[in-house]
Amino acid sequence: MALVAGATRGAGRQIAVQLGAAGATVYCTGRTTRTQQSEYQRPETIEDTAELVTAAGGTGIAIQADHLDPEQVRGVVERIDAEQRRLDVLVNDIWGGEGSFAWDKPLWEDDLERGLRLLRRQVETHVITSHAALPLLVRKPGGLVVEMTDGTAEYNAQRYRVSFFYDLAKASVLRMAFALAHELEPHGATAVALTPGWMRSEVMLEHYGVTEDTWHDVTEPHFVMSESPVYVGRAVAALAADPDVARWNGRSLSSGGLAQEYGFTDADGSRPDWWRYDAEVMTPGRPADPTGYR
């Protein structure tokens, strides 16, 4: 029994689908439905995600919710409680930050309201969702919380990430998982932070003017190491199925690292390890070469 908060598209959608492929009932939340769009004005909907979950072998249930609204989030959890009486997996994948940050612009030159909106969408939403959902999750031991972010703790501690607001948002989610791990451990539950590598989300594919079938046409050389959202979805499914998942409590994890541990692959059968590649090839300025990294 899982709640994927922020399941409309990207990582959240495939996390929900891969949990469904493992037989789970997955509640898929987000702001965009077939009758109402968020400010993104994108075509993906939570109903589409729920149908994909069901087609994969699970049971997908779509609920519209803005995770900045505590009352709406409480309503989601109350429905799960009424219908399932339990919550085994909570995935906090709410983002909502597209267009809310500037690249390489210092804090004092950035738009304050836009930056604060990014923090509200990336940090406050996760806090609100955990506050509402964790009482149900800890009702039975063995629960799992996955905080989705961008970058491992080691990587983000050593590098400036895009802008002050983006950097702070992603670091906050990493610390959130660490703090939750300490609070959940006495209740027999586990919290981890998880990052994909360079992920081919719908937004990223659109940015490069390609599809999942034609992504090899992108001229950016290091894009050869990109991964589909299926990869991180399978990472969450592997964690959820691990009876010894508590060994990861408080850890910062990546899709590529977990693939080495659990043996799953991306949709194309490859096993990209983006963060090792970045450290050993991209950051040192070496020519793009995926050999030995996927």
From TrEMBL:
Q: What Pfam families does its record include? A: adh_short
Q: Which SUPFAM superfamilies match?
A: NAD(P)-binding Rossmann-fold domains
Q: Which domain of life is it from?
A: Bacteria
Q: Which InterPro entries does the UniProt record give?
A: NAD(P)-bd_dom_sf, SDR_fam
Q: Which Gene3D superfamilies match?
A: NAD(P)-binding Rossmann-like Domain (3.40.50.720)
Query: NCBIfam families under this entry?
Result: PRK08303.1
| PANTHER family (alphabetical) | DEHYDROGENASE/REDUCTASE SDR FAMILY MEMBER 1, DEHYDROGENASE_REDUCTASE SDR FAMILY MEMBER 1
The protein's name is Short-chain dehydrogenase
